[in-house]
Design a protein that fits this description.
single chain; alpha/beta; Rossmann fold; Arc Repressor Mutant, subunit A; 2 domains; two-stranded parallel sheet; 7 strands
């Protein structure tokens, strides 16, 4: 099981061993303009090869064989990131606490109001959308950084450290005017408007292992 961007249309996966629940939830979710795919057991869900990364999971807690909390743990072990909304006909505070601590979006007791479920789904998909946007922005930032010359990367890191042009020129054995030219190129190529934005970009780049080249 892996996550991949298979569709721009939000999709809600539903795992519940009760056929009537699957049918009613499927109808509700489709009426709200979202795609839905239902599974009769956690094993059926785990057997799915690829998941959309614009999706969330509505998951029953108590099911035979493998319960919802065990599926949540298995999904985490597989490294798949998908927000989960638990539903249950057995109100159980310790279970709810455990699920929420493990990252669940919500924990709804059956029978629940349709509006409450749709609100939880909207919150889950909003979180997914924000995460996808963040990954895309980070990938774009890394791509722009990789397009810099080694010297431009050195100067970018030096500027982020608060060094002045004269000090950078001394450290790199170049003229101050050369530093200014490289600095201008960095700001242009990285689409940055200020040193503050440059410093933030460096922090983001460091978080994914980017470093200034030696020399």
């Amino acid at each position: 099981m892996t996550a991949s961007l298979t569709s721009q249309l939000p999709i809600v996966y539903v795992v519940d061993d009760d056929a009537s629940v699957r049918e009613s939830l499927s109808s509700l979710i489709r009426s709200a303009g979202m795609a839905v795919e239902v599974f009769a057991s956690p094993f059926d869900f785990l057997a799915k090869d690829k998941l959309s990364d614009f999706a969330c999971l509505v998951l029953d807690v108590r099911m035979p064989g493998l319960d919802g909390l065990a599926l949540q743990e298995r999904i985490a072990e597989l490294g798949v990131e998908i927000p989960i909304i638990f539903i249950t006909g057995h109100g159980d505070v310790p279970l709810a606490v455990r699920a929420m601590k493990a990252g669940a979006i919500d924990f709804l007791n059956k029978p629940f109001d349709d509006t409450d479920l749709l609100k939880a789904i909207a919150a889950a998909l909003s979180r997914v959308s924000a995460a996808v946007n963040e990954r895309n922005e980070q990938a774009d930032l890394c791509q722009r950084f990789d397009a810099l010359t080694p010297r431009e990367k050195q100067i970018m890191f030096a500027v982020a450290q608060g060094k002045q042009n004269k000090a950078i020129a001394y450290d790199l054995s170049v003229t101050e005017s050369t530093v200014k030219v490289h600095k201008h190129n960095v700001m242009s190529k990285m689409n940055l408007r200020s040193v503050a934005e440059l410093t933030l970009a460096i922090q983001q780049l460091k978080s994914v292992g980017k470093k200034a080249p030696a020399g």
